[in-house]
Amino acid sequence: MTEPEPARAQAQASRPYRSLWPYLGREWLRQVGEALLVAFLVTTFLFTTVGVLGTSDLPNVRPWERVFIPKYEAWLYRLGYGGYRRGDLVVVKPPADAPSARQPLPLLGRWGFTYRPYFIKRVVGLPGDRIRMEQGRLYLNGHKLEEAHTVPYWRVQGQWDQTSDLANSAYWPFRDAQGVPEYVVPAGHYFVMGDNRSWGGSEDSRTFGPVRLEQIGGRAATVIWPPAYRDEAGHWQWGWRRLGQAEAFKDLR
């Protein structure tokens, strides 16, 4: 003998919690899973943003700014379609044995949790290029570069500044890495440097060597945050700006 329909409906109404988990499984968890999958695909293959840590690319990119990365370019380059140019700003994963390759994870760092951050650097040498530095000057394939993109900070602050982020980033272990004898960039690798050329201002290929194409996460195309900032002279500037190829590299062949 079957239970009458009104009695069955009344029994189900008295036990609503029994229908909660099927609902979560079918609707809420499915929607969350789909959203996470879409976010993963977009940030992995289309575009993402990266927050800048440190002062290695001053005066052009400032600490805590956020840059836009077109990830599809990186995948095309890895497949052999196009490539990075000299003078492009890129985000790279440093080698695992680099001095600053591991950083404390926000909120969890006190318990020993770390992560491997992206570094923002400028491509100064392509595969096969000859690079050397003399007294802080960069020579590429025998040509001395007039790197105006590293000049404005010193023009404003003066060479003997001792209080800014640039001066305070002078990490002593990297002082011996300022001069680089002539070096030929291996195939499939890129020589990258920060625009901050003060002593110890940038941990880059002068300390950990050239980076493989696969270590480059993409080109830093645009600063998208914050909307405004105060420059070294105390003037307010728009924060949003394009990060193009440095002029010093445009005429090189």
TrEMBL record:
InterPro entries: LexA/Signal_pep-like_sf, Pept_S26A_signal_pept_1, Pept_S26A_signal_pept_1_Lys-AS, Peptidase_S26. It is a single-pass type II membrane protein. It comes from the Bacteria. The keyword rRNA processing does not apply. Its main location: membrane. PROSITE patterns: SPASE_I_2 (PS00760). Its EC number is 3.4.21.89. GO terms for cellular component: membrane. Keywords: Hydrolase, Membrane, Protease, Transmembrane, Transmembrane helix. This is Signal peptidase I. It comes from Calidithermus terrae. The lineage of its organism: Bacteria, Thermotogati, Deinococcota, Deinococci, Thermales. The gene is sipT.
